[in-house]
Amino acid sequence: MTRNNQSDWSINSWRERPALHQPEYPDKEALREAATELAAFPPLVTSWEVERLKSRLGEAAEGKRFLLQGGDCAEQFQGCDSEVITAKLKILLQMSLVLVQGTRLPVIRVGRLGGQYAKPRSSATETRDGVELPSYFGDIVNRPAFDEASRHPDPWRLLRGYERSALTMNFLRALVSGGFADLHHPEYWDLAWVEHSPRAAEYQEMVMQLSDAVQFMETLTGISVGDLSRVDFFTSHEGLLLEYESALTRSVPRRDGWYNLSTHFPWIGMRTAAPDGAHIEFFSGIRNPIGVKIGPSLEPHEIRSFIEPLIDRLHPDNEPGRLTLIHRYGAAKVADHLPALIEAVRATGRQVLFVCDPMHGNTRTTDAGIKTRRFDDILLELEQSIEIHRNSDSHLGGVHFELTGENVTECTGGARGLTDDDLGQGYRSLVDPRLNYEQALEMALLIAKRIGNHA
Ligand code: PEP
Ligand code: CO
User: Fold this and answer.
1) How far is the CA of 380 from the centre of ligand 2 (A)?
2) Ligand 1 atom nearest residue 293's Cα
3) Which of the listed residues 116, 122, 293, 357 should we mutate to test ligand 1's pocket, taking the one with most ligand atoms within 8 A of CB?
């Protein structure tokens, strides 16, 4: 039984709709076996965690909380490593504290991690020197090396992806439930980069205020800030591979409906969000909060006829926290597109949480052919989004970043002024470029007050 209005929804009803960006597995029998095995494994998250997140997202939609979502474009199996995971949790916790201070709102922290292993690709195949092979679709599908064996979509990797997700979440749960409290104390942060910025004095002042606030609160309550917020960390990934998502979707005792228990908060990518497609069909029947990416491929005058059926399918009951729209228009287009999106949603009479992903509309390729993004474009899209929402009697309720806690060089700009020529020093992403530790922290410092002014 589902709470969804459609009586014909089932865990397999998506199979009757066009499913875009699914790998073509040559061995169908192995796929069936892998999916059957997956369906028997324990879930990675619980329905009560999912419900708790949904109710917090509902409060964010009302302007009472703020969402920080971030992590890799695509996690790699080899990144399932204590340092990589710790660094990512650390930057997200630190950014969240900066945002709490600036916005004066509780911040919901959601990692793009513990399952962000599948990628939609613009082309199903890649050709090099006359050799055509399947594209790399993320580690849960195939391997990046350009040879026949590596690019072969292997259904058993679905199980390897589930296992990596479980290992990651197990470690995260241990970290957030104790021993990580120090990260809330700005005196332990890596702030060497600050002095490279013309805004150094301003940043130092903000960090000092933060430090004082943390100490004040701990003195007042006798509880460490780390302990106060210890359970508030959730996971998300793009709900792309429907074989995987449906195998981990379960009905649970004493609750109505179906929960996708591979993650707390799946989102539907821009390329798979057609209202009559398989992805919307599948996610219309599950109880999790759902994100949908909205990009500039539709013109402003077309957005209404897209949004109406989308919201009817995914958000028929106007349940608080159910639907998040993650707009990713790019700094150059957001002013043209966002007002129309806000109006189109308003016309449906439903409430959604609006989040800005300032990464995916700002991708560019350098002269040397490297995919990158400018720090200032990312900031500009965020600033414009905050302003446009405010002017439209709406509000930006969260931010969605591609970032890492490591010292990579994938995006240009920031306090150290990374240039296109610096990108070769530490470019590790196999897909989209991420903000590094310093750039991510600086971004949080820059946007916190602007969001706060509005709140
Ligand atoms: C992503 O989030 O990595 C992604 C592919 O985004 P979008 O669907 O918005 O292009
Ligand atoms: Co990406």
Assistant:
1) 19
2) 9
3) 293
Provide the CATH number for the domain around residue 122. Answer: 3.20.20.70
In a domain, 2, yes or no: no
Cβ–ligand 1 distance for 296 under 6 Å, the answer: no
Q: Is residue 3 part of a domain?
A: no
Atom of ligand 1 nearest to the CA of 74: 3
For ligand 1, say whether the CB of 73 is within 6 Å of any of its atoms: yes
Query: Measured from the CA of 269, which atom of ligand 1 is nearest?
Result: 8
Q: Kindly give the number of the ligand 1 atom that is closest to the alpha carbon of 357.
A: 9
- Say which residues have a Cβ less than 8 Å from residue 126's Cβ, sequence separation at least 6: 132, 133, 134, 135, 136, 146, 151
Positive/negative CA dihedral, 413, 418, 423, 426: negative
CA of 269 to the centre of ligand 1 (A): 5
**Domain assignment present for 31:** yes
Q: Please enumerate in sequence order all residues whose Cβ is within 8 A of that of 93, keeping only pairs 6 or more positions apart, or say none.
A: 109, 180, 183, 184
CA 316 – CA 322 distance, rounded (Å)? 10
C-beta 240 within 6 A of ligand 1: no
Beta carbon of 293 within 6 Å of any ligand 1 atom: yes
pLDDT tens for each residue of the chain, 455 residues long:
334 456 799 999 999 999 999 999 999 999 999 999 999 999 999 999 999 999 999 999 999 999 999 999 999 999 999 999 999 999 998 999 899 888 989 999 999 999 999 999 989 999 999 999 999 999 999 999 999 999 999 999 999 999 999 999 999 998 888 766 566 678 778 889 999 999 999 999 988 888 888 888 778 777 776 665 554 899 999 999 999 999 999 999 999 999 999 999 999 999 999 999 999 999 999 999 999 999 999 999 999 999 999 999 999 999 999 999 999 999 999 999 999 999 999 999 999 999 999 999 999 999 999 999 999 999 999 999 999 999 999 999 999 999 999 999 999 999 999 999 999 999 999 999 999 999 999 999 999 989 976 44
Number of domains observed in the structure of the chain: 1
Q: Which two tokens stand for residue 237?
A: 């990934």
Q: pTM higher than 0.90 for the full model?
A: yes
For the chain, state the CA radius of gyration: 21
